[in-house]
Amino acid sequence: MADEVLIQWAKRAVIEYSAMDAIAVAKEAISNGKTDLKRLVQEGFTAGMVEVGDRYNRDEIYLPHVMASSLAMKQAMTILRPELEKIKDTLESRGKIIICTPHGDIHSIGKDIVSTMLSIAGFDMIDLGSDVDLEMVLKSAVDNKALAICTSASMTTTMFSQKHLESLLIKRGIRDQVITNIGGAPVTQAWADEIGADLYSQNATDAVNKFLSLLGE
User: Fold this and answer.
1) Alpha helix (H) residue ranges in 16-133
2) Which CATH class, in words, describes the domain spanning 96-214?
3) pLDDT per residue over 99-144, tens digit each?
4) What is the DSSP code (8-state) at residue 188?
5) What is this structure's pTM?
6) CATH 3.90.1300.10 for the 3-89 domain, yes or no
7) Which of 85, 116, 142, 185 is deepest in the core (most CB within 10 A)?
């Protein structure tokens, strides 16, 4: 089956909340041995989730629909991840990145997509999950000698955790040792400028492009 057909099938599976179809696409892509798996994730599953997010922001669908789409993508990624890891293992790691949703925020969909895309791009992702205490973030960054910390805030109340993280990094004397990247629905470039974050990513593709650009690639 041609890549374009599989990509559109993957995108439709996510948009239509079909875990069954998402799993079928993933299995077909692996079994035929010819599909560009990175394209399938980027232009199929991820593009579908972006469209789902846009529909949610326009109040065309509701949170249960978004969660169902996310589940469909996660089940497909469970199947695809081992094959993607084989591809990544042939490349030199571009560095370790800590990623999480800060304490008080349980949203994970955007974070999960960014984590997947950066992993495909060759970064070693350390996903701490959602509702994460900043002390855990700092400890993980130090213990792993992380290149960067990515935080996603889906609510205005948790945006201030991103600001607090900048302050903590300065207080611990390690601000110049790590890149900070922020994102999330209410987050903007102006907020990144205000709090002193190094990068603002509008979406997963933007995150990949900005990290690669920062590394001169």
Assistant:
1) 19-32, 37-39, 47-57, 63-89, 109-120
2) alpha beta
3) 999 999 888 878 888 888 888 888 999 999 999 999 999 999 999 9
4) -
5) 0.78
6) no
7) 116
